[in-house]
Model the fold of this input.
Amino acid sequence: MNRRWLGAGIALAVLSLVAVLYWPVRHGGFVWDDTISLHDEAWLRGDAWKDFFLHNFNGWGNYFRPLVVLLFVLETRAFEVMPGPMHLVSLGIHLADTLLVGMLAWKLCNDPRRRTLLAGVSMLFYGLHPALIEPVDWVGCQFELAVIFFILLGLLLNAWIASTLWRALAVSVSFLLAAGFKEAAAAFPLLLVLFDLMAAPAASWPAILRSTWQRQRAVYAGVLFAAIAYLILRHWALGYTLTRIGADSGNDAVFALARLQKVCLTYLEYLRLIVWPMSSIGPIHPFDEQQFNLFTTRSLAIDAAALALMLGGIYAFSKRIALGGLILAVTIALLPVLNIVPIAFSESLYHDRYATTAVAMACVLLPSLLSGIGRNVRSRVFSMSVPLIACLWLAFAIVNIRVTVPLWSDEVGLWQWALRQHPDSLAAKDLLLTGYMHRNDLAHAGQLADELVAANVPCLVCLLNAANLAIVANDEARATQALDALRKQNLLAYDLRYLPRYILTSGRLLELQNDRAGAEAAYRDAIKADPFDPEAHMALVLLLARAGKVNETRDAEQALLALSAPDERESRRRLIEQTLAASRQ
Done:
């Protein structure tokens, strides 16, 4: 059989298997912050998205991801904010990434006899890697899938295009597009150089460096120009290049010993996730920040192991051993997420989705590693054990996908799973409470809210949710207690993004206390603070309707419906009409 047709058949078979295993995502809903950012808030509707195109995406200060904003705008308009088709877009990008992994692995493998089969193995391991369930099954993670697409495309074009000019142009554009989707593209230039050095013919290192520079200097110049252009655009859009944020950003220096311990532990956790993800995947991975200020036998062993792996990879690479190149590629891909820069990503030490690029690099270089080992090790036991281990790994991966995909498809199920893994996680309880409220499960939401208020937790969203639940139940005392706790802890001082929501909740409490003038003023202040929040507009419209102010109600209704998700407009219109009719009676 023609090798080209064999390769196409293997690729099609792998992609079909991945598609079938992930096909249930089409029934998935919005989870985590997708419900707010892609459905509830109105910044993607009308022309409001233009205000968030270059900055302040989801209120995150260090994010500059204009291309993902454009992607979300296109999807929400094309699918009218229905999550099912958006999940299928994620799956489509994942399948494209899987194909690129196989093509790049095929191109880099120096075993002509087996590289077609080994490239298919690479596709299998990438397409079915359980660490990628999170980005595939969470719509908001499409930037993770898109950035790896352009990283892989850039590396593939670099290996495939013979013309220096076209190669430089193609690689530079790929890098710029990757950076436009996510900042993790910063690893691309180092990966590019590493792959060039690995592909160079065997010679002394001075000769390798000299020949690589002569062949690739135009490409490197193009990538440098693209990087400068990106930084200029980023600084113009944000007003700064990078701002220090997070609880530990003010007192944790880059070169502190505590920082070194945190980096080493994060590195080992990611390696464990890449090699054996079966028991460690999940939406959150909380940790105790104070552990890095202590030096114990365990912490020193972790530091030694991480540094030994890094240095061992460098040494093996210097000897042109395939394993060394794989370790270095994975390490470079992880550099943006190793907590090296003192910016707190979240209360989690690491996230599954952040391993996407590293998993891709490991899978791309796996054929080179296996072919190199196969040439040097002629043991029959080895030749039998490697396929057996691979089959067992893939079998466990398939089970993980089938079990975990449904958990990521439902907000409540996701955070119940997280709480089973981490029963003390305040973040999981906070998000589970939000999930109950989105589902309108007031009984479970009220029970959890009471627990959080009684525990006096330092959780701004928890207390706001608890206050709103109490208002729905017409319980003025409990609502006042929750808002008082929020004020006493001065939580808004740490995150002003929630100030409009606090003003809105305060207005609802005033309305419950029959202070309609105060409530109306609060609602208008909330709208002024966040003009794209439909909830504040809805509260104002209903207040005006209850007061019988028909003309003002109609004016406010127009603004509300323009900001509302398409699947909510009719129900809101009916509620407004019912409220106006009740006021006339």
Summary: The chain has 25 helices and no strands. Residues 153 and 423 are 41 Å apart (CA to CA).
